[in-house]
Amino acid sequence: MTSYESLIEDWNTLVANFENAEKSHDEYLRLQKDTTRLQNNSSRSVKSLLKTSGQVKSYLKKLEQSKDKPGEDENEKLEEINRRMIEIRTRLGEMQMELPAESNGFYLKIILGSNLNVSLLNPDDRYRYKEEYESFKMTVTYFIILTLFLAYIFPYRAMDAICNFLMVWYYCTLTIREAILRVNGSRIKGWWVAHHYISTVLCGIILTWRDDQCYKQFRGLFIFLSIYICLVQLMQCRYQTGCLRRLHSLGQRQSDMDITIEGFSSWMFKGLTFLLPFLIVAYIIQGYSSYRLFYMYLYQDCNEDWQVLALAFLFAIVAAGNCFTILRIVFRKIQERYSLSTRSRLVSKYRPKAI
């Protein structure tokens, strides 16, 4: 075959493949337009149905609180409506999660803009993003521990600045990733989101603190606290990941977008209560850090550095918020267990005995 004939054959193949590709691309564009139109229609329908179901729910609540008692037939109908209402609203919530979010939220709008859609419609994509978030936390935490050890061995301000800059970047990135996770259905508690915002500001303030005698007095305590918290976080990430997988496999968690947290949650009572002492020690050190900074500001001539007072308040907020959160969770869990034990005793007491 001559080179001319080879060229003609390759050209004909190229033209045929181009025509097929063009047809496929046109079909893709048509389906994309249809998908966008169907998404918009579905979003409007779900939003309208959620509003209507909310009105019906409020009407049912008013009827239950009214003095006029319904008849037996009406009671059965109301119970049926209540049951179906729960099913409908649950399914509407699932449908809403499978559609693009209407808004990225104030924080993401500032950083990414209002026109960028960060909704991951494929459940596999959402799960992979969540897993990548967990991997990011673990990897960066290892790097932070390494830099903190180096800063402890080599007590130079430049090394401290690298550590603090790394932690500022880490917490800033966490806040962005968590905002995207929340848009995609991850139910992250408000305190842990606020905790990362406060940690970002806290590390940023330490980064701007000048290398004076007051900074050197607090430096050792801060490095120790940071290393300890990082080690506890590594323990939590490993054990919480296994716990979440076990709960998902048993069907005790509804969402695959649950993430590991720096604190303690109710589902962690499933065998992870051994983490409580480590967390309590961390919160005590945070509270002591606040006390130490207040003492330095009031009695050790450190009132010229505004960072001292600002850090004292921030450490106090973090310690108080962590303690309040963990106490509320433990108290609620004790109440649940007491309620279940009381109910089981009553059932056992009044169960008909076999003849």
Automatic annotation (TrEMBL):
The chain crosses the membrane at residues 136-155, 161-180, 192-209, 267-286, 306-331. Keywords: Membrane, Transmembrane, Transmembrane helix. It comes from the Eukaryota. Coiled coil: none annotated. It is found in: Membrane. The keyword Transmembrane applies. GO terms for cellular component: membrane. Belongs to the TMEM120 family. This is Transmembrane protein 120 homolog.
